[in-house]
Amino acid sequence: MKKSTFKLLACGLVLTTFALTTSCSSDDNKNEEQVLPPVAESRWITVAGALMQTTPGDGNGGTRVYSVTKEDAKNPNISINVYDNGEPVQSTRTARLQSSVDGSTLFNITYTGANGGEFMTYKVNGGKNFAQSGTTVNISQYAGTSPRWVKLFDGDKTGVAVNVTAPVIVTEADGTTYKHTRGSATVLSLDLQKFLISDYRQYEIPLSPAEEALGHHIFRLDAPTLNKAGNKLIIGTWMRKTNPATGANESDFERLGSKSVVVDYPSLQNPKVITSTVGFGDTSGYRSFNSFVANDGNIYQATQRDSKKGSYILKIGQNNEYDNSYVFSLDAALGVKGSYIDAWRYVGNGIAYAVYTYEGTNQGYVARLDLNAKTAKLVDGIAYDADLDFGQYQGFVVDGNEIYIAVTPVGKDGNIYIIDAVTGTVTKGAKLVNKAGNHYIGVF
Predict the structure, then answer these.
(1) Are strands 216-226 and 426-432 parallel, antiparallel or unpaired?
(2) How many CB atoms lie under 10 A from the CB of residue 174?
(3) Nearest to 42 by CA among 124, 154, 117, 122
(4) What DSSP state is assigned to residue 94?
(5) pTM score, whole prediction
(6) Other CB atoms closer than 10 Å to residue 311's CB: what's the count?
(7) What residues make up the domain containing 348?
(8) Number of folded domains in the chain?
């Protein structure tokens, strides 16, 4: 695998963790000198565990969290038992957690249930000591009780929640001829510091008339990403198709190119659908970020649910359109078939890490991705297991050139692993004590 070269940024730009953009880059300048995110001298590392509800690994029985110092997270002699010693966070099912860049705060929007759609924060104080904010904001009247949301990489200022109501079939004036299937979309921005809704917009997002006549429609939105210029949000989509003759959802259909919705920011207006001719999977991810602004100023986005061609990494240029000259197939890079990226994280300077599975196995793996060379390599040094499932995985921590990942097979103990993105060196960190049917879903 081609090695990546890490250098100091000549133009002197200092980046906060994850906000990986540069003021002296262009769409195609691969030779610019770049800088890694800063290293925190000391910070909390919070682990999150999902409890089984009815089926081992379903993660729908709630979420518990526990925090340790960075030093303890790296220590293989330390044991963490989030299920016996951790603190529950508010969520009927699996919580969708985000964390501040420095790890001092957890952000949560309750997913489903009587409190679904409530936003709150937790101050991280070590161990099971999480102080919940006294203020909550309920966004359910706008985005429903099960909103999908992420924190923008803007210095912990903004979260964006998105939702699509259940799509409905619309017929022509004759009342019988199929016209299209659509839901009503909501895009809502949330001020994470002032605990208030900054703005929201609701609208239908049509596809082309030809696409809609065939029954294609947007089923879900997720994983919004702010572009380098700070004036557009790129929102991932999960596509479905109605059978125009029967009105039923088609479980197997010919997919259109991968699609995203672009809206103006911060106004959230003027939704526009863009389409990739390279990838054909969905771009919504599942429980985590699914696209990132890289050092070159472009957005890189993973695809899912394309059983024929597997996951791709797509490129969206600074013109907010797909760059169809960029082709990065995970199947081809790894030599597998039917790859599926459950979650991934950009580290810096073109390097990212993905947790994935592929056709013929339910087991999860970790891969190192070089976005510039368009190569991928299985990460050695991790204790892989047949019961390792990253399907609900959410949280990575990037600290300088290091990325922290929680690896636990369902119902079995595991560890935090720390990977050096420069050298590829893998270090086994603290032990994660598990319980039957449960699994750890991230570090924050």
Answers:
(1) unpaired
(2) 7
(3) 124
(4) S
(5) 0.90
(6) 29
(7) 44-443
(8) 1
Establish if 38 belongs to a structural domain: no
Pairwise CA distance, residues 405 & 429, whole Å: 10
* Distance between start and end Cα atoms, the chain: 29
- Whether 23 is in a domain gets the answer no
Question: Does a structural domain hold residue 10?
Answer: no
Kindly report the length of the chain: 444
Residue 213 backbone phi and psi in degrees, to 5: -65, -25
Q: Do 215 and 181 form a contact (C-beta atoms < 8 A)? A: yes
Contacts of 292 (CB under 8 A, 6+ apart): 18, 20, 153, 225, 299, 300, 345, 346, 352
Determine the residue type at 162.
V
Residue 142: enclosing H or E segment and its boundaries? helix 140-143
- Main-chain phi, psi angles of 84, to 5 degrees: -90, -30
Site of tokens 């923008």: 152
In a domain, 341, yes or no: yes
CATH at 377: 2.130.10.10
Tell me: the pLDDT tens digits for 20-60? 333 333 344 443 334 456 676 789 999 999 999 999 999 99
How far is residue 147's CA from residue 139's CA, in Å, rounded to a whole number?
9
Dihedral (Cα; 96, 101, 104, 109), 10-degree rounding: -20
Q: CA angle at residue 444 from 81 to 102, to 5 degrees?
A: 130
pLDDT digits (tens, 9 = 90+) for 64-77: 999 999 999 999 99
> Cis ω on the peptide bond leading into residue 266 (within 30° of 0)?
yes
